[in-house]
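Q: I'm building a small set of examples for a reading group on sequence design. Run inverse folding on the following structure and report the sequence directly after it, with nothing in between.
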């Protein structure tokens, strides 16, 4: 059975270190070039600092560092995706450093496969996987991702996603 238009998942396709990820388009507030970032002391791995976004201080995460352990080289044209993430406690606005944003994809929920069965804590950050233009795309649960401390487990999970 094919999903109707209003049942389709609307996902923003992200390129992060040559790998493809997707996030729910309803979470996206803006895609922009990274402005001056204010470094903060003693940040956990993957967290870069903060920016001023619409009169608010917004923390910035290097998505490549979080997902692969390799930091993104920040350049004048570095892209961030500012997202609103609802967690169990509240709503948070964060910026995600990515290499590129390509398109909004409409995905039939029936074409989404579950993540590989490994690393239980990391598995929660991966909502599912699907194929698009011959690439495996990982759908991220940003609420889990930003609260996840087991980034090593998440990296192992994503390495196994190639077997899908």
């Amino acid at each position: 059975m094919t999903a109707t238009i209003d049942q389709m998942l609307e996902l923003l396709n992200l390129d992060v270190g040559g790998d493809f990820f997707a996030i729910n388009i309803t979470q996206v507030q803006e895609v922009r070039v990274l402005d001056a970032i204010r470094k903060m002391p003693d940040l956990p791995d993957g967290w870069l600092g903060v920016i001023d976004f619409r009169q608010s201080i917004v923390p910035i995460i290097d998505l490549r560092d979080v997902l692969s352990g390799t930091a993104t080289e920040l350049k004048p044209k570095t892209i961030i995706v500012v997202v609103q993430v609802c967690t169990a406690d509240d709503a948070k606005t964060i910026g995600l450093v990515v290499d590129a944003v390509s398109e909004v994809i409409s995905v039939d929920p029936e074409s989404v496969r579950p993540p590989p069965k490994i690393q239980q804590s990391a598995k929660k950050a991966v909502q599912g996987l699907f194929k698009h233009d011959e690439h495996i795309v990982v759908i991220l649960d940003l609420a889990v991702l930003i609260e996840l401390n087991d980034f090593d487990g998440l990296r192992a999970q994503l390495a196994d996603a190639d077997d899908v």
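The CA atoms of residues 47 and 61 lie 4 Å apart.
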